[in-house]
Specification:
This protein is an alpha/beta fold. The protein has one domain. Helices cover 31% and strands 19% of the residues. Strands 1, 2, 5, 6, 7, 8 and 9 form a seven-stranded mixed beta sheet that branches. Strands 3-4 form a two-stranded antiparallel sheet. Helix 4 crosses helix 5. It starts with 5 loop residues before the first strand and ends with a strand.
């Protein structure tokens, strides 16, 4: 199976999307040259954040220019996962500017995501920086808005949602990988 150069990857804070990205990046053919000690956050049983994040107030802006998108990785071989919560607001533009790349959406309900984000560290998370979200009230409003945009975009593309399972990974990426757990409240889809 031929994988794209990039997968534009989005999910709301607390959707466990970072853990999903890390599972995918552990497979053959994925590029993790955006990982540095400064771009790493972990805490207790939380899988954490690894690699670059894009978005308002983040290390890399949510600008879709190729120079910005490609800036985080040291090399450009393999498939690069380009992560941003803010991609939820510009999925049509991503599809237009990068027609050969994939878009991966992660959905988890608003309140469950909001609670998990706080449990994982909330505003104490060191990377990426969530200061732009200002406070918990604004964070919940953003989670709600981002999920709405993710669902609306998926609907316009007639996307089929799936649980993030070993079979889905095999069907979508052509590789076998062992998962420790499948979450019943998390759904994923890929727009190719």
């Amino acid at each position: 199976m031929t994988l794209p150069s990039r997968i534009f990857f989005t999910g709301v804070p607390g959707s466990r999307w970072s853990g999903i990205a890390q599972v995918l990046e552990s497979m053959d053919g994925f590029n993790t040259s955006d990982r540095t000690p400064l771009r790493d956050y972990s805490r207790d049983d939380f899988t954490g954040h690894k690699g670059a994040y894009f978005g308002r107030g983040m290390e890399f802006d949510h600008d879709l220019k190729k120079t910005n998108i490609d800036a985080a990785h040291l090399t450009h071989t393999g498939t690069r996962i380009i992560k941003s919560h803010d991609w939820a607001y510009c999925l049509d533009q991503i599809e237009q500017y990068y027609p050969d790349d994939w878009i991966m959406l992660v959905y988890r309900p608003d309140m469950v995501s909001y609670a998990w984000w706080h449990e994982a560290g909330g505003f104490k998370i060191k990377y990426p920086c969530y200061d732009n979200y200002q406070d918990s009230t604004n964070m919940l409003a953003e989670i709600t808005s981002q999920n709405k945009h993710i669902l609306e975009y998926a609907h316009t593309r007639n996307a089929t949602w799936h649980y993030f399972t070993e079979q889905w990974i095999l069907d979508t990426f052509g590789q076998t990988i062992k998962l420790d757990k499948v979450f019943s409240d998390i759904l994923v889809t890929v727009i190719k």
